[in-house]
Design a protein that fits this description.
With 61 residues, the chain is mainly alpha-helical. It is 92% helix and 0% strand. The radius of gyration is 14 Å and the shape is flat.
Length: 61
Amino acid sequence: MTDFLAAIGLFFAIEGIVFAAFPVATKRAMTVALGMPDSTLRTAGIASALLGIAIVWLVRH
């Protein structure tokens, strides 16, 4: 459970840094994402999740 909470904290830290360092680019990326079809966002989300799982698995084993 502590690893999960650490991961959530790291996610918020990275997200906060991105919003603070690149606010204009972040807004532009959100605008582009709003115009994308749901299927494209879903595919990107699944690919990102699988990549994240693979990275965690490689680091842990």
